[in-house]
Amino acid sequence: MGLRWNLCLLFFVTICCIDVQAQIPSTKLHKIRLEGPAQGTQFHITYFASDSLVRRSEVDSILTAIDFSMSIYRKDSRISKFNTDTVMSIVMDSHMAKVIKASFKYHKLSKGQFDITIAPLVNLWGFGANKSPVAPDSATVLKAKELVGMHYLKVSGNRLIKKKKGIKIDVNGIAQGYTVDVLADYLGRKGIANYMVEVGGEIRALGTPPSGQGFSIGIVQPDDAGGEELMTAVAQLKEGALTTAGSFEKFIKYKGKKLGHHIDPVSGFPYMTDILSVSVYAKTAMEADALDNYFMGMEPEQVKTKAKKLKGVEVFVIFKNKNQSIEAIYSDGFGKLFKN
Fold first, then answer.
1. Which of 147, 185, 302, 327 supports an S-S bond with 298, CB 3.0-4.6 Å?
2. Which residues are part of a known binding site?
3. Using one digit for the tens of pLDDT, what is the confidence trace for 20-52?
C-alpha cells in the first residue's frame, strides 16, 4: 500500500479548489487533475496549463522512489533495512539524505522535541508499524527511552550510522511534507506556474486558478461529539505550503484520558496539551510538516510566540479553553491568508 504516516485524520486541511471550467477560453488554459493512492492515503494534483504536461507514470515513479526509501511499512525499504538490529549503517539515497539533514535541523531548532529516533516510543504507544497492543507502564517507557536520541545517529558522507545497537528511526513527521515538495518541484520543472499539490492533507501551491484569487483551502473544526464538521476558516494560498497536525481522532485512552499520537521524546509519553490541531504556513511543505508536529507539544499562545520568531512561518491553532469550549487563535500573518 505504500507509506503510511502519522496523520490527524479529522483535523485535516480540506481542499476546496475554486470551481472553474475545464477549459477557460480567455486564457486557453485547462484545469487538469491527477489523483491516486500514495503513502497510505491519497494524492491530488491540480494545475492549469494549455496542455497536459504531467504523466501519471512519472508521478507514480516519484512516489515509488520515496516509498522504497523511507517507508517503515515496507520491509524492503531503505529505512526498514536500517531499522533492523543487525544493520549499523546504510548508504542513503538522495531522498533519505535530504530528509535526514532536515531532521537534524529541526531537532536542533526544537531543542530535541523533534526526534526521528522516536520509533520505539511510537510503537510502544500503539501508533507505529510494530505497534504494541496495550498501553505501556512507566518502567516500559523508561526502558524504550534508552533507544531514543538523535545523538545516537551520525552522518558520514552519504552514510547514516547508528552509534548504538537497537536504534530505529521514523521520519513520518516530516517525510510526507517532503513528498509534497518533490512533486511541486517536479511541476515547476515542467514549466507549470499555477498548481496545487496535496498528499494526505499536506499542501503546497503556486499561482492562482484563472478565475480566482488563489487556491481556497478550508480548515475544518470537527464536532467534539462526533457530529458534523465545521469549516473554521478558508485561506487563499498563492505561494507556499500549509500543513496540519492534530490529535482529535488518532488517540488512545490511558488512565481515563485521551492521549493523541504525538509523542514527547523527552518524557516518553504523548503530549498532554489543550491543543487539538495546529495548521502551519511555511515556504515549503517539509518545513511546515516538521513544525506542526513540534508545535503540538506547546500551549496555544506558545505556538504563536515561537512562530513569530521563525521567518515566513504562520500558524492557526484550534484548542480547548479552560471552559472546555473549542477556540481558535492565529498569527497576524495567517490572518492575511483568509479569503476576502
1. 302
2. 173, 289
3. 333 334 458 899 999 999 988 899 999 999 899
Does pLDDT of 229 surpass 70? no
- Identify residue 196 by its one-letter amino acid code: M
For residue 35, give the C-alpha cell: 489523483
- 175: cell is 517525510
CA distances from 68 to 59, 62, 89, 151, 173 (A): 14, 10, 17, 25, 17
Whether the pLDDT of residue 156 is over 50: the answer is: yes
Number of domains in the chain: 1
Q: What CATH number should be reported for the domain holding residue 138?
A: 3.10.520.10
Domain around 60: 30-336
Q: Output the DSSP codes for 172-200.
A: HHHHHHHHHHHHHHHHHHTT--SEEEEET
Q: What is the CA radius of gyration of the chain?
A: 20
Q: What is the DSSP letter of 103?
A: H
> Which residues are part of a known binding site for Mg(2+)?
173, 289
